[in-house]
Amino acid sequence: MELFTVNRYTEDLRTRKDKEQKTSNEDEILQKLLQKAAKRKRKHEKAETRKQEEAPPEEKPQVEDTKVDEEEPAAKETRKEEATAVEDPTNSQDFKILGDNDSAMRKKVTEVLPPWLAYPTIIEGGSLLPDDDLEAGKDEASIENLSYLKDHTRQALKQMKIKRLFPVQRTVIPWILEAQGQPAPLRPRDICVSAPTGSGKTLAFAIPIVQLLNNRVRCKVRALVVLPVAELALQVFKVIRALCSKTELEVCLLSKQHRLEDEQEKLVEVYKGQIYSKADIVVTTPGRLVDHLHATKGFCLKSLKFLVIDEADRIMDAFFQNWLYHLDNHVRETANQLLAGTQPPLCLKELYATYGKVPHKLLFSATMSQDPEKLQNLRLFQPKLFTTVFALPVPKSDEQADGDEETTPNTGHFAGKYTTPAELTEQFCVTELRIKPLTLFALVEKYQWKRFLCFTNSTETANRLAFVMGKLFSTGPTKVAELSGKLSALVRAKTLTDFARGRINGLICSDALARGIDVADVDVVLSYETPRHIKTYIHRVGRTARAGRKGTAVTLLTEQEQAQFKKMLNEVGKALGEEISVSADTEVRHADIYKQAMEDLRKRQEKEKTIKIVQKRRVAQQTVLHKKQEEAAVNPSRPLTLMQKLQLKAGGARHVADEPHQKENKSKPTAKKGKGKSKPKETKKQRLAKQRKAIEE
Ligand SMILES: Nc1ncnc2c1ncn2[C@@H]1O[C@H](COP(=O)(O)OP(=O)(O)OP(=O)(O)O)[C@@H](O)[C@H]1O
After folding, report:
1. Domain spanning 424-602: CATH superfamily
2. What segments bear the compositional bias annotation Basic and acidic residues (predicted)?
3. Pocket of ligand 1, candidates 165, 202, 237, 309: which has the most ligand atoms within 8 Å of its Cβ, to mutate?
4. ipTM exceeding 0.90?
């Protein structure tokens, strides 16, 4: 059998007669085929007519089907022949070329959210009005009137100066308590809560957890709260600890702010060879959690009842940390159980098998991800979404939005992912890139802000801006400081404390700390650079207007940035807000001091650059030297470099050169012993001369 056929160009070899005969043959075949096709067409038309005229409607399809089936192989063959006979395939009507724009079928794909995301439970009712505005007795949100709150919770809340619960707390707390109270094998659905910044999400998960764990007998880790950064973990730890103050429950904080060994001591204890847990609730960052999963003997999560993921979308974005994988593995190892939620439908057996073994997952964020793929990673069990806003008013188009601020409600979609507090006023100020720091300075001077946060897009900008602002404010009472991810955790903690106590008026921050940080009474949040993503903006501005208090957010924009920023806001149904400005002569008034500040910054940067270069060179030199010293130690017969010689002279590595020499000296006496001759004793001078010679060689 021929596996390969070689096609050769053979036209020259053919006679003219052959060619003519071939052409006539091809014509004949073509004619026959066309006739066949015409005959088939006629037959088909006849059949169609007969079908319409004679046969009863029920029977017809059957007959037709048989006919079609019978005809199909023949038709297929003919089509095959036709395709072979017709030389240019693109002439055929049936033939479609892949990638051809005309023939390609373009279908519009519409995004469809899973039902639980599309139809959430709405968090309704009440504002976050300050406590003083309400009479505690009449208020149905008052902690005295809420029957599901236990006495120890009420007492702890009173100590925290909380008299009434916020809407998100009034919705989520009773739901969790009820869901957990269901009998076996009913398992509570995992929940995602999307509520504005400062709306009290921390207490919404902390209260039910503390109440449900309070009647435990033995101390075991039953709740794990995961937060993206150490500062946030500390903040949530403080809230839960305060809430547990009237209970026996132990709360433990794990974050890179402390030594691992210290944390291990707080986490587990060994008594008579047995390991015991010292914590009921663990608050941690993902990275530190992984450290303890690997390094802390006896850190066991097999009794985990609650897994809380605060700032869930941020944690899902940072999946590189792989913490869920490690957690999952740990839980599997320790208890042979799955952290994963089983997908519905569940059979009763499965429900019984997993009941009480899989932690109840509670996800919280002000900008909950709508991306089902990301949520999929968390393997939620029949998830349920709580959100504050169901539909956001979105302007119809840019032109319309330009004309008037009237908006059309876009009902039927989950749009509660990006909501800002009602008490927040949003403003913007147009400036030039050249004088942006000066505009910022002038704004603070004009509006007399006593407590402000100013966000930049990078740690470098935060560092430089803090330097310039420090110079600009140097003559007045306003104190500013940098607060960025570049600084150590200890410095950051100290700066935050100073700010909270009023020793510092303004913080120039990078976005690392835009999320979750709860500092009371921030007058204004300034965006020195426009945030790259709407989520970042929502979290930045959320540092003010918290817990029902009023607050302002101001964004500094250049002419070019204005349109893009407006578009970004419009996409989530937000408007640009009111424009504010500083007086036109600002630049003139502060020209000297600004010029000086910029000049100082330039000098500082140059100095830093030089230091960096010198450090880099030094490191490179040291690396080369170490390498050579290592080589010399391995292979002593190799000649030494000048640098090594100098090092050896200094005595640092004398033994490296001495070693072979000493060996020689040791072997010599034995050889000489054999010969019976004794060598005259070497003087110190001679020995040194010999050593020097060896070095030079
Ligand atoms: N019921 C309440 N009454 C009064 N103040 C409250 C109440 N609940 C929470 N707070 C206060 O509101 C502030 C914000 O709470 P929390 O940090 O829980 O908000 P959040 O929704 O988690 O915000 P973010 O999304 O920015 O993290 C805190 O200072 C907290 O003490």
Report:
1. P-loop containing nucleotide triphosphate hydrolases (3.40.50.300)
2. 9-25, 45-66, 73-83, 655-667
3. 202
4. yes
